[in-house]
Amino acid sequence: MAFQRRRQQHERWPIPAALFAAALLVLAALVLLVSLAPPPLEHHALPRPRRPALLLKNLAEVKRNVVATEVFHVPGGGSMENDLWVSKLAKHFHGCSNASSGFASAKANTRSNLYLMIATSGGLNQQRTGITDAVVAARILNATLVVPKLDQKSFWKDASNFADIFDVDWFVSFLSKDVKVIKELPRKGGKVIGNPYSMRVPRKCTPRCYQTRVMPALLKKRVIQLTKFDYRLANKLETDLQKLRCRVNYHALKFADPILEMGEKLIQRMKAKSKHFIALHLRFEPDMLAFSGCYYGGGEKERKELGAIRKRWKTLHISNPDKERRHGKCPLTPEEVGLMLRGLGFGADVHIYVASGEVYGGEESLASLKALFPNFHSKETLASKEELAPFLSFSSRMAALDFVVCDGSDVFVTNNNGNMARMLAGRRRYFGHKRTIRPNARKLYSLFLNRSNMTWEEFASKVRTYQKGFMGEPNEVRPGRGEFHENPSTCICENNKPRVDSGPQDQVKGGNQNEKGHISRNVGEPPEHHSSGDEEQEMDWLDFDYGENAHMVNLANGTGLEYNFFLRSEDPDLEEILSD
Questions:
Q1: CA-to-CA distance for 494 and 91, rounded, in angstroms?
Q2: What DSSP string runs through 43-56?
Q3: Which domain of life, per UniProt (predicted)?
Q4: β-pair type (191-192, 351-356)
Q5: What is the 3-state secondary structure (H, E, C) of 235-295?
Q6: How many CA atoms lie within 13 A of 7 on its CB side?
Q7: CA distances (Å), 107 to each of 156, 238, 245, 323, in order?
Q8: CA neighbours within 13 Å on the CB side: how many for 553?
Q9: How far apart are CA 48 and CA 54, in angstroms?
Q10: Which residues, in sequence order, are bridge partners of residue 93?
Q11: Where are the beta strands (DSSP E) in 2-47?
């Protein structure tokens, strides 16, 4: 009976009970929504349900954020491909700079009592180009060359003389068959013969230019000093003179023993850490960045700091930072260099030797590169203060140490196209096409800018595509294009082909020696260049250096890809700071 009464009561009040339960649920939901709701939005920011395009845009932004935080992730792991370290084609080429049978000996070519002196300009590598060209100039003028004076008064303020940097005895003896070289002017009656007559030749002066402009003064004065001697010789010369350039640059100019010994120690210490290593020439100094007019995301602080430095050069154009970067006219940041290398396939386990001056932003700028490549080294970390003491006060000697290590690396990478980068690129081509990586800055910029919109795999694939033609492969740059010290095509021979420069002299070979006696041919022979001295006063931007003029331009290499670098000006402060 009791059970029946309870059942009747339950059937009598079904609706109120259900309503009560529903009300409790709604109340709880409202409390939860209120607690989780964001602050009220401005009226104009509220979503409009009838705007599907706007909704799609918002969804796209959400997707980009998800990709940026979750998809673009640089993987760990090591380098997998052997092709990264060595070019498969390098074995088919070797350096060849022997003189032809028709190249007269120094004794037959040199006229008595004619002496050429030169005063170099700029940093170590800019001076190296001057020394190389001075030997050729002396040959053209049938003169005896006095060992060149190094620049001791410029921005670099380095008191080193020639013998402190280079092996002067080797220099004199090695060139004895080509040009007579003496250490100082002869003396007569205890006095130096004659006072040098100083003059300056125009940039890119051809052999005819030297004959018409310098020879008359040399015959009259007997002793001539050519001042500020950098890039004062034409880029394109006849074959035997180009090969003389190679013999000077790659064989006669040997660093002094203390520099070579310390440099070799640094190389061995790198090789003790890993079978292979990369050397990175990183130019990211405040002066250079200010000159470039580029912007690297440092906000108002960066704009003010670099803007103040930029005011030192009154002739500089007003820059458009976005345009400069978009056109590939800005050096890569340390992080961008690291991303490029990782995209190419170099793993986090790779050891990197970094040759650089003062890096703008210091450790903060280097942090991303070090995160990508934790095995980060420099001469300061590899050597003790005591070992570096003989070099520390001399910028050219410190630069020479970096040059030796970069030359001895398995892979050389640069974020710029300054003198050191170009000199090393040419040297590494001559000695066996050792892997040399230059960034395709124009293509890479857009890739870096949009990397958050893609996966790592997509990013790395594009890096490898864009870097084709910038990896130091043989025939990468068309023969005769660009500056000769960077692309010494006349001095690169291909195996198993008829040889152009056959002759009795067989003293010089570079890179992969042709041990099996294969004959070879020259890869490229730039045409002989004949013009008047007046025509040679005009500057050809293809031949000049990075960081030495008020604006930059692009150089198309043999692959059709852009390779950019600065023009040159006669502003000494500008040249000295930015040259190397």
A1: 9
A2: GGGS--TT-HHHHH
A3: Eukaryota
A4: unpaired
A5: CCCCHHHHHHHHHHHHHHCCECHHHHHHHHHHHHHHHHHCCCEEEEEECCCHHHHHHHCCC
A6: 4
A7: 37, 21, 19, 56
A8: 15
A9: 8
A10: 494
A11: none
DSSP 8-state secondary structure symbol assigned to residue 228: S
Residues 6 or more apart from 87 whose CB is under 8 A from it?
Answer: 433, 435, 471, 472, 473, 474
Which is nearest to 430 in space by CA: 512, 526, 527?
A: 512
Cα 454–Cα 451–Cα 378 angle in degrees, nearest 5: 130
Neighbours of 342 (CB within 10 A): 23
Buried b (16+ CB within 10 A) or exposed e, 273-308: eeebbbbbbbbbbbbbbbbbbbbbebeeebeebbee
441 and 320 Cβ atoms separated by less than 8 Å: no
- Residue 443: name the closest of 562, 565, 534, 308 by CA: 562
CA–CA distance, 500 with 106 (Å, rounded to integer): 22
SS3 443: helix
pLDDT tens across the length of the chain (580 residues): 444 444 444 444 444 555 555 656 656 665 555 455 554 434 334 344 444 444 444 444 444 444 444 578 888 776 656 689 999 999 999 999 999 999 999 999 999 999 999 999 988 999 999 999 999 999 999 999 999 999 887 655 789 999 999 999 999 999 999 999 999 999 888 888 888 999 999 999 999 999 999 999 999 999 999 999 999 999 999 999 999 999 999 999 999 999 999 999 999 999 999 999 999 999 998 888 888 888 888 888 888 888 888 888 776 766 777 777 777 788 999 999 999 999 999 999 999 999 998 899 999 999 999 999 999 999 999 999 999 999 999 999 999 999 999 999 999 999 988 899 999 999 999 999 999 999 999 999 999 999 999 999 999 999 999 999 999 999 888 887 889 999 999 999 998 754 433 333 444 555 443 333 334 445 544 333 333 333 333 333 223 332 332 222 232 333 333 333 333 334 444 555 555 6
User: In sequence order, what DSSP letters do the residues of 373-422 get, joined into one string?
Assistant: ---EE-HHHHS-HHHHHHHHT-HHHHHHHHHHHHHTSSEEEESS-SHHHH
Q: How remote is the C-alpha of 155 from its chain's centroid?
A: 21
- Per the DSSP assignment, residues forming a β-bridge with 509 are 96
Count of C-beta atoms within a 10 Å radius of residue 337: 26
Place of tokens 């000494």: 572
Q: For 511, phi and psi rounded to 5 degrees?
A: 70, -135
Beta bridge partners of 278: 352, 411
State the Cα–Cα distance between residues 131 and 147, nearest whole angstrom: 9
* Separation of alpha carbons 96 and 109, rounded Å: 23
- Is 226 within 8 Å of 210 (Cβ atoms)? no
Number of Cβ within a 10 Å radius of residue 425? 25
Ramachandran angles phi, psi of 348, nearest 5°: -65, -15
Q: Is the pTM here over 0.90, yes or no?
A: no
Q: Which amino acid is at 480?
A: G
The kind and range of the H/E element at 199 are strand 197-199
Determine the 3-state secondary structure of 183 from DSSP. Answer: coil
